Amino acid sequence: MKLRYKAPALIAAAALAFGITACADNSASEGEGKTSTDAVASVKVDEAARAALPADIRDGGELIVGSDLGYPPNEYKDANNKPAGWAVDLVEAVGAKLGLTVRWEVAAFDQIIPQITGGTYHLGSSSFTDNAERQKSVDFVDYYEAGILHAQSSGAGLKADDLCGLKISVQTGTTAHTDVVPAITEECEAAGKPAVDMKVFDAQEDATQALVLGNVDVMTADSPIVLDAIAKTGGKLEQLGDVFDSAPYGLVTDKNTELTEAVRLALQSLFDDGTYEQILSDHGVEDGAIEKVTINAGK
């Protein structure tokens, strides 16, 4: 695919040792395990954002958030099986701005949007790329810019512009699965070359492990996730090519609801008071920072 975005600096490794599973039950204890930087702890309620909340959520006192918590360094489970990551901190800060307690619920990535549209979750936070197809069913409050990146085994000597016939691992439901790798296959077939053999895994951890074990040639995922995996696998993996296809991450809400505007106001308040910048800086992911909160800016 055509590269059109420069690679950011290497993201600092998160506290979780590589290998914590994304699979977990939805017990109440998971909702109690919150990460907190000093920036999150100091967040004050934004009355305008709180006033914009749907009455039932405001009165209920909880923001129920669905995530697969298997995408370090963005959202994952720490060594104590608690939600962690810079995006977890950001959602906790959004909850604080809204005067709500965040309750984390764990779900498979491709089940989160259906649970939002079905009314089980208020919000989805699982490094969702905002795009036109997903906007047909949900809204996105955009907060970050990330691209796509490939990884290969160290010393493999592959070329990013010649992946035809290779085995590529992806996580199910991600942009890499639904858009990026299929587009590579189309280009290969149009050129009369062998198609990519895409291997789809339920959890990002398993997609990464497939490359570590040599069961695939390439792993493709969002740039922060690939860089984090490289940092945590002891030199076994390396970047293949540059970051490309930059697009916004968005917090997911049901379509055309008051909650979307409330979350936008809360996020913008975090931008305005410096909390957003501080959270990203604390976690070493400031390269993807954006200047203004948007709704449905993905293409």
Overview in brief:
With 299 residues, the protein is an alpha/beta fold. Helices cover 34% and strands 23% of the residues.
Which descriptors would you attach to this protein?
three-stranded parallel beta sheet, alpha/beta, 299 residues, six-stranded mixed beta sheet, globular, D-Maltodextrin-Binding Protein, domain 2, 11 helices, 34% helix, 2 domains
Describe the 3D structure:
The chain is an alpha/beta fold and 299 residues long. The protein folds into two domains: 167 residues, Periplasmic binding protein-like II (D-Maltodextrin-Binding Protein, domain 2, 3-Layer(aba) Sandwich); 99 residues, 3-Layer(aba) Sandwich (D-Maltodextrin-Binding Protein, domain 2), CATH 3.40.190.10. Helices cover 34% and strands 23% of the residues. It is built from eleven helices and eleven strands. Strands 6, 7, 8, 9, 10 and 11 form a six-stranded mixed beta sheet that branches. A three-stranded parallel beta sheet has the order 4-1-5, sandwiched between helices. A two-stranded antiparallel ribbon has the order 2-3. A hairpin with a 5-residue loop joins β2 and β3.
Q: What's the arrangement of secondary structure elements?
A:
Layout: H1 28-32, H2 38-41, H3 47-51, H4 55-60, E1 62-67, E2 76-77, E3 83-84, H5 86-98, E4 101-106, H6 109-117, E5 123-124, E6 138-153, E7 167-171, H7 175-190, E8 197-201, H8 204-212, E9 218-222, H9 223-232, E10 237-254, H10 258-272, H11 275-283, E11 294-295
Parallel strand pairs: 1-4, 1-5, 7-8, 7-9
Antiparallel strand pairs: 2-3, 6-9, 6-10, 6-11
Helix pairs in contact: 5-10, 5-11
